[in-house]
Amino acid sequence: MRLTGPVRAVVVLLLVGLTWLLANTFFGGEGISSVRQLLGGTKAEPTQSEQRPRKYKCGLSAPCPPKHLAFRLVSGAANVIGPKICLEDKILVSSVKNNVGRGLNIALVNGVTGELLETKTFDMWAGDVSDLLKFLRPLHEGTLVFVASFDDAATKMNDESRKLFEGLGSTAVKELAFRDSWVFVGAKGIENKSPFEQRMKNSKNSNKYEGWPESLEMDGCIPLRPPLEG
């Protein structure tokens, strides 16, 4: 006996429903994609988790090579949102850790082992620059220096403090001015200028916020230094 049109449609719908239930049972949440494959032979669409780009340490888009440290620096936004320093997927400095402050936010890291040595903030608007000088002068060879600005990082800068940062590999510090955004990674004893530095000039014509430029974000991979001989 031949099936009439309406009856045939009902049978097809029942078969599709049964197939969907079986697929959902065996394949879980991928039931709909599996039905499409079973019925039409089409390739299943990628799930949301498959479409999302994979992130690595500190949110990098690619992993760092062996014996390299993954980092991400974010300068403060105006005088509202504090800066952030991430190293090897660990937050060293952030508002959540309650260890940020107006001016320069600095983390010192052992360049051989990647171990955090110290974090400190220096108020460059109303603070004493001598505190910064006492902090930078005795750095040991190979120490990595991570810097993220917040609000104003330059008002209290003097010639010696700028030269100390230049000795760590900075090229932008000599131009650093009132309320500029600045992120920088340098090292004591570096032979060349650091490739890890960004500066955004405070300009009323281009500022993102009223009175402040936009926040800067920088990430990358820093090679660990071989142990010093002797």
UniProtKB/TrEMBL annotation:
A single MF term (Gene Ontology): carbohydrate binding
Keywords from the named record: Disulfide bond, Lectin, Secreted, Signal
Membrane-crossing residue ranges in chain numbering: none
Domain of life: Eukaryota
Record's GO cellular component terms: extracellular region
Annotated ranges, domain ILEI/PANDER: 102-189
Subcellular location: Secreted
Family as reported in the entry's similarity comment: Belongs to the FAM3 family.
The protein's name in its UniProt record: Protein FAM3A
Originating species: Austrofundulus limnaeus (Annual killifish)
Name of the gene: fam3a
